[in-house]
Amino acid sequence: MAIKIFKLMTGEEVVAEVTKETKDSVSMKNCVALVLQPSRDGKLGFGFVPFGAMVEGDITIDKSNLIFTAEASDDLKNSYNSMFGGIVTPPKTLITG
To answer: What's the burial of 51, exposed, middle or buried (CB within 10 Å: 0-12/13-18/19+)?
Structure first.
């Protein structure tokens, strides 16, 4: 399933697995809100907080409530997958001999 970022009209950014998409709505599961926070090295990093934690089953959002939808970066996907037991891909490096 595709892991995507959704920017809501309320300003929240949600990361989730898309389970169904129609012309008017998108359904998702394992939703977390993305929050920016300082990292240990002083740079800006990200973290996750529960989104719809008390909901049982999928969350469906009307597309009219979305500002944008985008593919998640590899770093974001790996962090997300480590929370939900998905596949975490190693960084791509050049092997030299």
So the answer is: buried
Q: Give the side-chain half-sphere CA count within 13 A for 36.
A: 6
Quick: pLDDT tens for 41-73: 888 888 899 999 899 999 999 999 999 999 999
At 96, which amino acid appears? T
How far is residue 37's CA from residue 49's CA, in Å, rounded to a whole number?
12
Q: What 3-state class would DSSP assign to 35?
A: strand
Q: How far apart are the C-alpha atoms of 49 and 42, rounded to whole Å?
A: 21
Count CA atoms closer than 13 A to 48's CA, side-chain side. 20
Q: What CA–CA distance (Å, rounded) separates 74 from 83?
A: 14
Is the predicted pLDDT of residue 37 greater than 60, yes or no?
yes
| Rounded Cα–Cα distance for residues 14 and 69 (Å) | 10
Prediction pTM value: 0.80
How far apart CA 82 and CA 76 sit, in angstroms, is 10
